[in-house]
Amino acid sequence: MKTLWAVSLALLILAAPLAAKETGMRQDEGPITIQGNALTFDRNQSVMAYQGDVQAVYGDIVMVCDSLKAFLDPKTQSVSKILAAGNVKVVYQNMVVKCGKATFFPSTRQMTFEEEPVLFRGKSSLMGSKILVDFSTNRMKVLSKGDEKVNIKLFQESTRTP
Asked: Are 132 and 121 in contact (CB under 8 A)?
């Protein structure tokens, strides 16, 4: 029976991209597609746990990691929160963030990066103990803890033409 639920859920997820294209929805309103080497679905807890070479895509946000848990809203069965762990890498436009753990809330397009997060934009980098990004507003907040400082390396883009 649990296998039937997992298969049904997988079919819903696979069919969602077509529905988003056909209705003319914006990318950030479309489906979340997740794939990995293994999936365990806990219907009682409304959690899908992926293991091994995991990739999740939500519009223009791409996340790869070692393991991922997608928490479903029990009423709507939509993804309410994603928790990624192990070698997390998130790509969004010209920004790349690498860290050990990331939490994403699809409804608000907000993500928290923890465990040695480093944000790269071109050659420039930004480090702190926690990085909070709001993809809807393109705003971020970088926090440090204790005596640590937020570190940034900015490389100036050349405006000269050869």
From this structure: no
Q: How far apart are CA 148 and CA 152, in angstroms?
A: 13
| Residue extents of the structural domains in the chain | 2-153
What class has domain 2-153?
mainly beta
Comparing C-alpha atoms, which of 21, 7, 16, 134 is closest to residue 78? 16
Contact 113, 83 (CB under 8 A): no
Cβ–Cβ under 8 Å, residues 69 and 83: yes
User: Tens of pLDDT along 21-77?
Assistant: 333 334 446 899 999 999 999 999 999 999 999 999 999 999 999 999 999 998 888
102 CB burial (10 A radius; 0-12, 13-18, 19+): buried
Residues 6+ apart with CB under 8 A from 121: 94, 95, 96
Contact 151, 117 (CB under 8 A): no
Its pTM stands at 0.78
The β-bridge partners of 34 are 56
Its sign, for the CA torsion 109, 87, 129, 140, is negative
